[in-house]
């Protein structure tokens, strides 16, 4: 069964094949469940001219915000600009191409891409700038716009546990966009907090089957909190 072992020993090996101009899919929501070490490796490699697809683009100085700082990103497809002042600045100045997409639509674009569905109709965004230039059809008396699915060259994902075969479990809200991203990459790389022996994961608990995963690596994580709120 050695050929089914997806484990790699270094982040350099984990992102082998990532090249300039590729489309990079990244899991996470805010700073929750982001593949922070894989992002740091993208920065270290200096890969440029990337199209990044993620719910948002990190914050100043952390997460995907690091790639913005080094001007490694050409285009961002996201649903939220968030707390990233540099993201906002680059958008306004025209230095960064940004395609803002409703959050549910973005999730479905990734899910459809992973399922091999090229496009779908949704009522979300009709009558707004989102619908400009897109095909419109009426279903049950309601207009819908045609949205194209999203796939990527490389998908980077943060899980909680995985086994040698790349079966992955996510923990609580850190699950967010990660399972969708994991299915939509030509190469999917997952970093986790723990790698367990084959058979240690209950089949019913697995969120991403190993068939979607090409490489898995165990890392240590800062898990920075975007906005800390304390109850008095």
Automatic annotation (TrEMBL):
Source organism, top-level taxon: Bacteria
Transmembrane segments: none
Molecular function, one GO term: CoA-transferase activity
InterPro entries cross-referenced by the UniProt entry: 3-oxoacid_CoA-transf_A (IPR012792), CoA_trans_fam_I (IPR004165), CoA_transf_BS (IPR004163), NagB/RpiA_transferase-like (IPR037171)
Record's keyword annotation contains DNA damage: no
Pfam families: CoA_trans (PF01144)
Keywords, alphabetical: Transferase
Keyword flag Membrane: no
Family recorded in the similarity comment: Belongs to the 3-oxoacid CoA-transferase subunit A family.
Annotated NCBIfam families: pcaI_scoA_fam
Protein's name in the database: Succinyl-CoA--3-ketoacid-CoA transferase
